[in-house]
Design brief:
This protein has 405 residues and is an alpha/beta fold. The protein is built from nine helices and 25 strands.
Length: 405
């Protein structure tokens, strides 16, 4: 028997660990139940941190962790999925192709930044979405030091006033001054079509966010979108042109395109609709998790968001349930009633909120310490020790934030 997991992000990593945990509990050997994880590299990209400097350092190796729990790593990219034949075709780094069969498939392919067909965006826009994107932006920022201080060299426009856009924007003044000199006058502008900043955060946290933006010197242009980009900067939908040599697109994400190969219903974000066990109901043998799945997280109408916080726990439940089906033991319905957020606000600290209603918990330096602990400890893989790695993947304990309530 084989469980095949596509993706080495937070959901894929925990799916593999959790499946291995249940296999171990049931006393089943790796020869009887193979767990295989497919990804281009055996590396976790710490995606929530890609707005920070030195993005090339924001990865964590997975090979030793996978080996410690007897998970097979398959290097390559899943190219096609045949759910009737229960096979996945994989393309290796050098173009070599092979096909793997599965008894259960866990789709943990994550998400990608949504890039609309805006004139000039592909040519002139940067992002902090994937590791390569963040590295390209970092190189561009360092290259600004070789350019004359005019024509918007010290200006950064961030398109998108949501979580990612705010974290990127509030970090930019510090990053620019580190490159161009501590006395450099910087200009950072968030552009968003909504009438208020951080539309999903609600009215409670908004004054804190607005105050933080003022403190770090980030301007906003609300009620306007990006109409076009060129080498001189950005033209907004209201006709305003902003000279800027750096434009960061941070407006929306969609499930990775591979989910479209599963013949099942999807939501507006491209996520596969799943049941409480994270199965794709219309496709036997297929589970979806993390940013690839739209899953109810409780019984009162809340759904998992496309976030690291939800992906880790969803991955653990998906891996456990895929293994449970093959081993003939009860599955565990996914649930994640607790929800917290921690928004980095650059030199103004951070904002920690509690619950779906986003009650303000910690702010400023206290919030920043919690954010740094989340970013440098909580979201990293467990140690490559069998007992510790397996114990870390108990579905009911992964990303348990009940202590904050």
């Amino acid at each position: 028997m084989r469980i095949l997991i596509i993706g080495a992000g937070f959901a894929g990593m925990y799916a593999a660990l959790s499946a291995a945990r249940l296999r171990d509990i049931q006393g089943v050997s790796p020869e009887q139940l193979e767990i295989a994880l497919v990804a281009p590299e055996p590396t976790l990209v710490v995606r929530p941190r890609l707005y920070e400097p030195k993005p090339e350092t924001l990865t964590a190796p997975l090979l030793d962790v996978l080996k410690a729990v007897d998970v097979v790593y398959v290097q390559g990219s899943a190219e096609t999925i045949d759910t009737k034949a229960r096979t996945v075709n994989i393309v290796g780094a050098k173009g070599t192709k092979k096909s793997l069969s599965y008894d259960r498939l866990v789709v943990a392919t994550g998400s990608r930044l949504f890039r609309p067909n805006i004139p000039g965006l592909a040519e002139h826009g940067f992002s902090v979405d994937q590791l390569d994107d963040a590295i390209a932006l970092d190189r561009h920022l360092h290259g600004l030091a070789d350019r004359p201080a005019k024509n918007g060299r010290n200006t950064i426009v961030v398109a998108g006033g949501g979580f990612t856009g705010i974290e990127a924007a509030t970090e930019m003044p510090t990053r620019l001054r580190a490159i161009l000199g501590k006395d450099t006058k910087t200009r950072v502008i968030i552009v968003d079509r909504n009438s208020a900043i951080a539309p999903d955060m609600g009215a409670g946290p908004r004054p804190i966010i607005e105050d933080a933006l003022r403190k770090v010197g980030v301007e906003t242009r609300l009620g306007a979108g990006v109409a076009s980009l060129d080498k001189s900067g950005v033209t907004l939908s209201n006709g305003e042109h902003i000279e800027a040599e750096t434009v960061i697109w941070a407006a929306g994400i969609r499930a990775a395109p591979l989910t479209q190969q599963i013949p099942a219903e999807r939501d507006n974000f491209g996520r596969l609709l799943v049941d409480r066990d994270l199965r794709v109901p219309s496709v036997p043998g297929v589970f979806a998790t993390g940013d690839a799945a739209r899953a109810a997280s409780d019984n009162v109408g809340n759904y998992a968001l496309m976030s690291c916080q939800h992906a880790t726990r969803m991955g653990a439940f998906a891996g456990n349930n895929a293994a449970a089906e093959l081993l003939g033991v009860p599955t565990k319905p996914y649930h994640q009633e607790g929800y917290v957020t921690c928004l980095d606000l650059g030199e103004a600290g951070a904002l920690f909120t509690i619950g779906w209603e986003r009650k303000v918990g910690m702010v400023g330096d206290v919030g920043k310490k919690t954010k740094q602990e989340i970013n440098t400890v909580w979201i990293y893989p467990p140690k490559a020790e069998r007992a510790a790695a397996l114990a870390s993947a108990d579905p009911d304990r992964v990303t348990d934030v009940s202590g904050f309530f």
